[in-house]
Amino acid sequence: MSTGLGFGPITQGSGRLLDQIRLSGVTARGTHGVFDFERRQGQDFVVDVVLHTDISAAAASDDLTRTTHYGELAGTVADIVRGDPVDLIETLAERIAWACLEPPGVFAVDVAVHKPQAPIEETFGDVVVAVRRERTILLERAPAAPVPVVLALGTNLGDRLMILRGAVRDLRAVEGLEVDVVSPVIQTDPVGGPDQPDYLNAVVLATSTLSANDVLAACNRIEGEFGRERTVRWGPRTLDIDVISYGELRSYDEKLTLPHPRAHERAFVLAPWLAADENATLLTASGPEKVATLLEQAPDRISLRQRPELTLEHWA
């Protein structure tokens, strides 16, 4: 039986093609359909899945935990087919796609649902509904439970301390965003861009019931209230709030790349983050890495200057 998946490969932001894990012919009996006899008698459905992922870390380490367990995936797909009935196999395909996107290393999924015993009077070989769903869809989806969020704050214009304090205050006021820990303030030299003043930096650890896109929108709104203008790349700014990570979500979306693509090499993010959480880890291309280890390797770490007299936590 043909897979029914005519979608092409997917390219990472770096230009490299993503790897694929293919699972074909998962067959389970379900009671999906618009007719009463389909609900009573049931019929076999066949599902093909292609996961677009990066298997390099798993291949290098020979570690099952760094890839998708395709036995468990087959069970998940079969359970959905056997589960609550729906009228349309379009809906069934959507449910399966969402479930396949849950593992953190999956960037996109192709799903084909076959209904070879569909109630059609004419002679036919198969009925297939095929969908592609990319992980960027999850940027728009509110989580079922609060997820941890890491936000990096920076400013090098105006009254920098008051701006950071105001940003923390405004983040605390965002409905659906719970600020848990505010790091100490660290002063750093600017990285890249034109000549400009030094930065004050901090990290906020929070939990949120907002979607990742809504967290970003809240950060952008607060930046705008403090006069942030994006006229020069890496130029001076009154306030910068970057979403560093949102749970274990990976995204190559141009609007919101997760985890932040340069956080692993930026001491002005890593140092305050480590000060806020000594056990912090960051999801990198090669898997989770300790923030403490990444900080030791960060090229701009020599410019860090602790500012313990500048406090943000519990300030009103």
Structure, described:
- The chain is of the alpha+beta class and 316 residues long.
- The chain folds into 2 domains: 19-140, 2-Layer Sandwich (GTP Cyclohydrolase I, domain 2), CATH 3.30.1130.10; 147-306, Alpha-Beta Plaits (2-Layer Sandwich), CATH 3.30.70.
- Helix content is 26%, strand content 28%.
- It contains 8 helices and 14 strands.
- The strands form 4 sheets. Strands 5, 6, 7, 8, 9 and 14 form a 6-stranded antiparallel β-sheet that branches. It has a 4-stranded antiparallel β-sheet with strand order 1-2-3-4. Strands 10-11 form a two-stranded antiparallel ribbon.
- Helix 3 runs antiparallel to helix 4 (89-100).
- The radius of gyration is 24 Å and the shape is elongated.
**Helix- and strand-based class?**
alpha+beta
Q: Count the DSSP helices.
A: 8
Low-confidence stretches: none
How far apart are the first and last residues' alpha carbons, in Å?
A: 66 Å
Keywords: ATP-binding, Folate biosynthesis, Kinase, Lyase, Nucleotide-binding, Transferase
Protein name: Bifunctional folate synthesis protein
Domain 7,8-dihydro-6-hydroxymethylpterin-pyrophosphokinase: 233-244
Pfam family, one: FolB
Write the layout of secondary structure elements.
Elements: E1 19-30, H1 36-41, E2 43-53, H2 56-61, H3 70-82, H4 89-100, E3 106-114, E4 128-134, E5 147-155, H5 160-172, E6 177-182, E7 186-188, E8 199-208, H6 212-225, E9 240-246, E10 251-252, E11 257-258, H7 267-276, E12 281-284, E13 287-290, H8 291-297, E14 305-306
Antiparallel strand pairs: 1-2, 2-3, 3-4, 5-8, 5-9, 6-8, 7-8, 7-14, 10-11, 12-13
Helix pairs in contact: 3-4, 7-8
